[in-house]
Design a protein that fits this description.
The protein is mainly α. The protein has 1 helix and 2 strands.
Length: 92
């Protein structure tokens, strides 16, 4: 092959690699550009524990009969960012 053709092929492959990397990074982003929650994969809901019962009945107060409850990791925000909490400290 001609060296010029090899150079063009190598350049094209490197461009494709960069595009793939950008697309992979964007697919892991949730709403507002924040990373998706790893537990619910950005849906905000996970399978409810009532579906694990042996009687095959789905529905409880937690999931309102849907079989899906709020994610315990993101609390339904769908992002992987931790929820900020203020803890008041008092001096003794």
């Amino acid at each position: 092959m001609n060296p010029m053709v090899l150079t063009q092929v190598a350049t094209g492959l490197s461009v494709l690699a960069v595009v793939k990397q950008v697309m992979d990074e964007r697919s892991m982003m949730g709403p507002g550009g924040a990373p998706r929650c790893h537990n619910c994969n950005g849906s905000g809901r996970v399978t409810c524990i009532c579906t694990r019962w042996s009687d095959a009945d789905v529905g409880c107060r937690t999931c309102s009969g849907s079989g899906r409850m709020l994610c315990s990791t993101c609390r339904g925000t769908r992002t992987g960012r931790p929820i900020s909490v203020r803890v008041p400290a008092s001096r003794r």
